[in-house]
Amino acid sequence: MRNRLFPAAAAALFLTALAVPAAHAKGGDAPVTEAELAGHIRILASDAFEGRAPGTGGEDRTIAYIVGEWVKAGLEPVPGSATPWLQPVPFVESEPLTSRATFKVRGRDIRLEEDGVIVAGRDPSVSLRDAPAVFVGYGVDGAGHVNTDVRGKLAIMLYGNAPFGAKLPGYRERRRMLANAGAAGVLVIAGDAIPWARLRDAVAGKTVRLADPAEAPPSVSGFLSLEAADALFARAGQDGAAAREAAKAAGYRGAELPVTADIETTARIRPFASNNVIAKLPGARPDGKAVLFLGHWDHLGICGEEGDADRICNGAVDNASGIAVLIEVAKRLASGPRPDRDIYFMATTAEEKGLLGATWFADHPVLPLEDITVALNIDTIAISPRGTPVATIGRGRPAYDAMVRSVAAKLGRKVDADGEADAFAQRQDGWALGAKGVPSLMVGGSFSDMPLLEAFLGSDYHGPADEFSDKVPLGGAAEDADLHVALGRAFADTKRWTGTADQSGVP
Ligand SMILES: [Zn+2]
Q1: How remote is the CA of residue 2 from the centroid of ligand 1, in Å?
Q2: Cβ 224 vs Cβ 190: under 8 Å
Q3: Which of 58, 157, 189, 313 can pair with 300 through a Cys bridge, CB separation 3.0 to 4.6 Å?
């Protein structure tokens, strides 16, 4: 799962009980066992896989394992693929070396506190001269469009989510939108949400992005501390707090500042390659619609400091557990009665770098995106015990919600409809597909019991301690695997699910 500060769980939990006794129809799919999942996780999260970082030997071993299991299951490579089983994804790693940013108000140099601004450049060497600054608020209007003319300018943008729309993009995506709109640079005003030291380390450290002009950041990116931003506004004769307040309106159009910036940066740039792994289970009676299962295979790789006893972030829960479920779901669906529709399975790369593999797939799909009747993402699934209710990220299309309720009820699962899971919508691969209009759901127990999830996020998550042991709970993951087998059968059944827009409630 993608890193982000965990928002406090707010709403009280209430459950919609739809419990009926669990029963597997005669001749139905055999339940997925905890032992089967453990077998995969033990291997994928072993030190030999070095934490599964994209572009490493750990990637090679991970791909070989997943493809090997999918071949055993009976899946096929996507027909016509130049690189069977693999979708190559090109990346650029950038390591900042030097940076300098100075500001002028009406042509006169001003000094900001030394540590108040951090910048990094996109290319080996970047030089901005006299770039005019414009405060853009959240950078988008209520409709999600860039809200002002930023061509050739240094845009100064707010960090948090815009208060005037629940589905508006986060700051990374807004920054890219400003770059696409021609901004020379984007400085984000840091709030209290993330400690300044963490932002500074993030900008100063290596970053990875897609080698795709459409996904490129501005030539200069960085952060302004709240204090430095207020000081800059004050030197320009303006009130920073008042500007931030004005920006809370959906129709805010930005404000030019009598400020120009000179910014110089150097960086070491390294291209490298990684891969999404994609397989197909051809349907018995394909109707042009398809079901897509996905989960990210990557994790953080060697993450500890030199000299640490354990330097490998093994990513057992995040997300070897999800890949284990993808493998077993593929085995059940391929070995039982053949579903009507085509079913695709995808293990994505670089989710941890910002949903990058899923974003690449959404920009370069191997089947038309409009043919995907549902995408089901599986991430960080070994959290809860058996009996945990089913939560769904991506609710809101009545026909889909009804299908999930019906499938869960048939398995004797309770449904948790309190909406707490929605806080994770932008932190998982389904978001990248949903942004392109693919109905994307993440369904299961891991995002239903918030105290359990918070306990994981507050301890082993994204550290060397996320490794496999008998203590990793697999009961809920096994139940969620069965749920995904049943969801796959339901959404791939042309009689049960028409797969048309009117059914989804989306024209
Ligand atoms: Zn993660």
Answers
A1: 4
A2: yes
A3: 313
Those residues whose beta carbon sits under 5 angstroms from the ion ligand 1 are 1, 318, 352
pLDDT in tens, 147-167: 999 999 999 999 999 999 877
Q: What are phi and psi of 493, to 5 degrees?
A: -90, 115
> Is residue 237 scored above 50 in pLDDT?
yes
- How far away, in angstroms, is 299 Cα from ligand 1 center? 7
**Per-residue pLDDT reduced to its tens digit, 259-278:** 999 999 999 999 999 999 99
The pLDDT-based confidence of 426 (bands split at 50, 70, 90) is confident
Centre of ligand 1 from the C-alpha of residue 357, in Å: 14
Cα of 462 from ligand 1 centre, angstroms: 6
> Which single residue is written with the structure tokens 């994981």?
456
The domain segmentation of the chain, as residue ranges, is 38-74+282-504, 92-269
436 CA to centre of ligand 1 in angstroms: 22
CA atoms of 173 and 194, how far apart (whole Å):
18
Q: Which helix (H) or strand (E) holds 376?
A: strand 372-377
**Domain 92-269 part of CATH 3.50.30.30:** yes
254 C-alpha to center of ligand 1: Å?
35
CATH number listed for the domain at residues 38-74+282-504: 3.40.630.10
The pLDDT tens digits for 384-393 are 999 999 999 9
The β-bridge partners of 342 are: 290
pLDDT surpassing 80 at residue 18: no
Ligand 1 centroid to residue 342 C-alpha, Å: 29
- Among candidate residues 267, 245, 213, 281, the one with its CA nearest the CA of residue 97: 267
Residue 232 has pLDDT above 50, yes or no: yes
Name the token pair of 251.
């129709």
